[in-house]
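User: Putative Heme-binding-like protein, chloroplastic. Structure?
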Amino acid sequence: MSAPTDEVSFEKATKLGFHRLFQYIEGANLNWSRISMTTPVLTSIVPDAGPLHSSAYYVRLYLPVKFQASPPLPLPELNLHADKWPSHCIAVRQFSGFARDSNIIKEAQRLAVSLSRSSWANSTDSGNNAYSIAQYDSPFRFIGRLNEVWVDVAGSQGSGCASSGVEVY
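Assistant: Predicted structure:
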């Protein structure tokens, strides 16, 4: 499930988008279903899609398997929509601490440098998203936090990135 936002700040976008998604999983949907929280919370950065060509963001939650075939419809005022992500390959870089406006770009650049020195050089495919930040921990966890920066890798089927055949919403 996705919450689009045109906030200029990654942190504000994630907070506001997650708030709407949290309402949805707590029952703000047309059949009042409560949905288990999943991880990660994924914030995808879309360059030049926001106001005055700033970045825009999509904050996303994966739905549990029970709800993937037929997700409950969110209440219209939440401005959420179901996204079906086809199977695809991503390059990942882990980082600790809190994901902030001050460090996510640096982590994305570190991933880009790593890829440029590998056999995956020139294989990234940003598509609609430049990169995504996956956050796995509750904001109340202060030590041992796990985050990742993700970027799509194009043409990877022949390069050792085989599809598992699993699709997620």
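Confidence is low (pLDDT under 50) at residues 165-169. The chain has two domains: 2-78, 89-159.
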